[in-house]
């Protein structure tokens, strides 16, 4: 069997293992998924009228729903990948990885299985949040088929990038609690991005913090694709962030994983 065939076979096995774990223990995924859903309902039904008033003349709650949903979709991806960090940390601390190291399997298949499984869970989580968003009034009538395809590609790329970062966080964490805490920036960063309000509405000193981070260009790109608004330079910035985080996360995770097991 060639090295490529071995890698594909073992990665598929590890993917199946991780999906079975997610099916048997859904509570973590559900808990993380509830955060963006609750924020969506809170900001639409409690703060919707007030927040929409700050978007300009003629804006109403429906306009704010359209503005809010793209950011919360990407926040959903960040929330889901926290479960990946916890899962990887559990494998490391419980000795599962040490046992895998003694078996005749492709060395990188363990991490690849985690990454692919997490990306699939992220896509399913986004679909769930999207259904909730449509139920409360979100519509994307101006997006073409090509823009929908580009939006899906962006979501997959962003999920892959954050997942590799989460894998690295899980590998360096001594236990599940530490992994969850280390991965909190994946939920915190969307809160200080353009998810809830335009950057122009923020204080001048805070605008660079919200602008120069990976979530804001990705949110603005997704918002433009779904709503037909201008994307500008955000598309390229989002792509660069996705590729940079993927490469960084991959080599970081590989470096930590190749060390002697703790």
Element layout with pairings:
Layout: H1 3-24, H2 27-45, H3 48-53, H4 61-93, H5 96-101, H6 109-135, H7 145-172, H8 176-182, H9 185-191, H10 207-211, H11 215-227, H12 234-257
Q: What is shown here, in short?
A:
This protein is an all-alpha fold. The protein is 75% helix and 0% strand.
Question: What this model shows, in words?
Answer:
The chain is an all-alpha fold and 262 residues long. It contains twelve helices and no strands. Helix 2 runs parallel beside helix 6 and helix 4 crosses helix 11. The model has no long low-confidence stretch (mean pLDDT 85).
State the helix count.
12
- List the secondary-structure elements in sequence, H or E: HHHHHHHHHHHH
Using only CA atoms, what is the Rg?
19 Å
- As residue ranges, the low-confidence spans are none
The main β sheet shows up as:
none
Structural class: mainly alpha
How far apart the termini lie comes to 31 Å
Query: What's the count of strands?
Result: 0
Summed over residues and divided by their number, the pLDDT gives a mean of 85
Q: What multimeric state do the chains show? A: single chain
Coarse morphology: elongated
Strand content: under 5%
Proportion in helices: over 70%
């Amino acid at each position: 069997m060639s090295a490529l065939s071995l890698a594909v076979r073992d990665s598929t096995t590890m993917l199946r293992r991780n999906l079975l774990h997610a099916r048997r223990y859904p509570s973590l995924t559900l808990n993380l998924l509830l955060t963006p859903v609750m924020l969506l309902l809170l900001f639409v039904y409690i703060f919707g009228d007030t927040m929409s008033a700050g978007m300009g003349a003629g804006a109403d709650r429906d306009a704010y729903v359209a503005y809010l949903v793209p950011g919360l979709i990407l926040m959903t991806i960040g929330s889901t990948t926290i479960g990946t960090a916890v899962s990887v940390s559990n494998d490391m601390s419980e000795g599962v990885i040490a046992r895998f190291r003694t078996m005749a399997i492709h060395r990188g298949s363990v991490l690849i299985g985690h990454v692919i499984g997490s990306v699939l869970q992220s896509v399913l989580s986004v679909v769930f949040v999207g259904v909730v968003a449509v139920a409360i009034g979100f519509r994307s009538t101006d997006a073409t088929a090509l823009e929908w395809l580009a939006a899906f590609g962006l979501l997959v790329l962003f999920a892959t990038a954050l997942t590799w970062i989460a894998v690295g966080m899980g590998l360096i964490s001594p236990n599940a609690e530490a992994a969850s805490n280390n991965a909190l920036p994946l939920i915190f960063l969307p809160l200080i991005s353009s998810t809830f309000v335009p950057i122009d509405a923020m204080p001048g000193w805070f605008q660079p913090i919200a602008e120069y981070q990976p979530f804001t260009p990705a949110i603005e790109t997704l918002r433009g694709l779904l709503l037909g608004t201008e994307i500008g330079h955000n598309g390229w910035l989002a792509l660069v962030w996705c590729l940079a985080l993927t490469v960084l996360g991959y080599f970081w995770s590989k470096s930590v994983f190749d060390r002697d097991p703790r």
